[in-house]
Amino acid sequence: MQISAVIITYNEEKNIEDAIRSVDWADEILLVDSESTDRTRELAEALGARVIVNAWPGFSAQKQLAVDEAGNDWIFSLDADERVSDALKNEILALKGSAVTADGYRIPRLSYYMGKAIRHGGWYPDSQLRLFDRRKGRWKDVVIHESVAMADGARVERLNSDIIHYSVENAQHHAKMIAERYAPLAAKQMFADGRTTSPLKMAFAGWFAFVQTYFFKLGFLEGFPGFCIAYFAAHHAFLKHLVLWEMQNEKAPRDKPAS
Q1: Residues 230-239, mean pLDDT to the nearest whole number
Q2: The pTM is what?
């Protein structure tokens, strides 16, 4: 079982060294970089990674390119803001030395927020299919929340140890991520799926997201970080519906001017 660890990047000089070091157990480390203007590629190459530069085509397409360009059929996909925990490293090494019975493995992902490991509010276990045989799976062609789809009949098992996720630096970064990436991309995917919204849906979307995250998913158990997570979940829900509403109104035919 030879494994290629693949990472996609854009201006990740703050993260890339720790990410690469966390997959130093892999038989190959491949980085696909979307024309970074910082030292990402230089730092990756210094740590022994093979680097390919490719203009940004979207998350799914870039991750699939990394899969296609890898030197081994078994793929471990990692984001630059993620790390393989020591426990997960040992679990994968044990797997490499045994008879493999699955075509892919789901792995829990533990996110840190405001310096705290978050296990409530819908953030954990956040199971991710990241270790897989590329002959049996590939990245779905979607705008947001990309994931690996396995072929019919493929066997998927679970690993027990965590990928560690450091996605949010601070409140300003969280708000920026929602405004510039997650809400617009979510609205674009909803629009492509033929979904529509309304001012009434917008009004309730944020409220429902807060209640669901903070109460139903026990976010309150995380203290103040849990409240912030619920607040930003509400903000994201409202904003994606607002962007979708704008998109569907732009598509609608305008009234003809009076003659």
Answers
A1: 98
A2: 0.92
